[in-house]
Description:
Helix content: 25-40%
Number of helices: 10
Strand content: 15-25%
Order of helices and strands: EHEHHHHEEHHEEEHEEEEHHE
Strand order of the largest sheet: 1-2-5-3-4
Mean pLDDT: 86
CATH architecture of the largest domain: 2-Layer Sandwich
Structural class: alpha+beta
CATH class of the largest domain: Alpha Beta
Number of domains: 2
Largest sheet: 5 strands, antiparallel
Number of strands: 12
Amino acid sequence: MKSMFVKFLEEIEEPKLLELGGKGYSLAVLVSKGFNVPRGFVILSEAFFDYLRQNNMMEMMRKLSLEINENNFREKSREIRNLILSGKIQENIELEVREALDKLNTRHVSVRSSAVSEDSLRASFAGLHDTFLNVKAEASSVLESVKRCWAYLFNDRGVIYRIKKKIPRLKGMAVIVQEMIPAEVSGVVFTVHPMDKKSLLIEASYGIGDMVVGGRVEPDDYVVDRKTLKIVERKIGRKNIMTAIEGEKIKTVNVKRELAERQAFSDEEIENYLNQPREKFIIFRIKKGDKDV
């Protein structure tokens, strides 16, 4: 059966932002450039709109979306989320997701929001939409997380951000499903430093990375010269807690003081990685396997 709503990252020949959302588009580009990205697939943004149509929600969604303003956004957003969560995912989407999960053949996945309006030149939405980690790779669990990603397009922080940026309230939402990587140390690279265009910035901490993205821990900062790829400045953060996968659960654990006071990544690890022939960098060190995300 040809998939209408699901595409595997490695099968996407011409990435389209309107189909894949911001994150999905970026991941598809990375895969096309030969980066070693965890296997996964994207549930296209059209699946969200088809879900609304099949559940007879589209007109109500448009109405409620148009009514949202800075004074009532919490109340209206909650109403929209509850409306979306009350629907039933149609059989054709469920079947495509089941087949994709069988092909992916992994025990746990991350289910990540990928809004059409995010990661653009106009707006980033960094950390504003929801991700569900270590989800059991069975259709019922994954589809429930997908529905929550759709609903939380209308979380309070995302809605008020769209209001401030004058972005339409009702936008497409794709969802990325990838194999879950049990990272020991994780980091994110800003290929252009927010305060210095001549540098890039690496943030790194222990665990699977959600605390760095969510701003729940003070990570290490490494400022790197964009031309020479040499570290020019480093600041060791207070990495006193981390999230780690333990069986079916994700737990927050304390980091021993002597470990917290060390660099999460050594200078050598960072410089060796950055000097590989790559255009963009996002770093994970994992317990087993050989994947760089």
